[in-house]
Write a structure and sequence with these properties.
The protein is 33% helix and 15% strand. The chain is of the alpha/beta class and 396 residues long. The chain has 2 domains: 275 residues, NAD(P)-binding Rossmann-like Domain (Rossmann fold, 3-Layer(aba) Sandwich), CATH 3.40.50.720; 100 residues, Oxidized Rhodanese, domain 1 (3-Layer(aba) Sandwich), CATH 3.40.250. The strands form 2 sheets. An 8-stranded mixed β-sheet has the order 3-2-1-4-5-6-7-8, sandwiched between helices. Strands 9-13-12-10-11 form a 5-stranded parallel β-sheet. Helix 5 runs parallel beside helix 11. The longest helix has 18 residues. The relative contact order is 0.10.
Length: 396
Amino acid sequence: MTLLADEKSTIGRAEPLPELGPQEIRRYSRHLIMPEVGMEGQRRLKAAKVLLIGAGGLGSPLGLYLAAAGVGTLGVCDFDVVDETNLHRQVLFGRTDVGRPKLDAALGRLHEVNPHIQLVPHKLRLDSSNALELFAPYDIVVDGTDNFPTRYLVNDACVLLGKPNVYGSIFRFEGQVSIFWGAKGPCYRCLFPEPPPDGLVPSCAEGGVLGVLPGIIGSLQANEVIKLIVGAGDPMIGRLLLFDALKMKFRELKLRKDPDCPICSEHPTQHELIDYQQFCGIPAQPEVPGGDFDIQVDELKQWKDEGREVTILDVRTPQEWEIARIEGSTLIPLQELPDRMNELDPAATMAVLCHHGPRSFQAVRFLRQMGFARARNLAGGLEAWSRDVDPSVPRY
């Protein structure tokens, strides 16, 4: 879809456009000599206000390139802290940032990249109570999140406010990029009307991600943001770009607006933000049948020390099993569990674990439905065991 000149001119324009100082002219000189950008395009970049949702894998290249490009106001929303496992892909951060709030570390780095822009921190957990107010001052919202509830929330808030949502997602070796803009084309719900069942799609923490992939996808998102602001080229409205890093191939799918979309159609049925955890089928509170659904890591250690008979069932992947495991545990990956239940004793006391707990929660819920009444979920998973019980077990 090609935007008309007057449509492009409505994105992030201040009247009159701000002037560029001598230092900015020198800094952006390679932009200024391009006819597609020029002085006017660079001044539009300076006038623009862009909000990044997430300062992680996608947010890192997004923040770096949008700051370097001269986006005048760059808001960053994040509430997480830097972890060692982030460093192979989240290039905003270094070793000395481990343990710091991502927002603090990110804004310090982005200020070094470009002191001429305004950086606005939003240290909060995005939800339905704050999204509309947060998005309102910005021209463009960029989705750098990694979970379905937040993706639907970002989409719906952008549709309700009439703002473009520059979307990106990554998993293992594959990535996606598009612009969802309900006022001018399809939105995220037109492509994905319903979220997948909770737990069906692994997170990056469970399935992994190639370290360079967020750099590629985040850079493509930044490219789309800059194009929208300066009014150059054809934006990815109504198109979904698919990238496969293993095959080094790009594919493009044409997207159509769903005439029955509940939020962006001509006759929407949804006029406000909803409970997106519930919409995505994520329980608000853990199910605790009989009050004994979980077992704590110190309790499991005590059982082992006392020599009690307990089956430790690990439902992670074989690749994770090779990295670290509890001695004496049995590996049955979650997706294989329905076909391998015959390997387990229904009468046995069982502690089920994964990396952090979500997959083992699903496994225990399934096992109890199948008659394994004494199956319990190891709260916090292998991460908690390594951190609180046995530091010799590697953390990942």
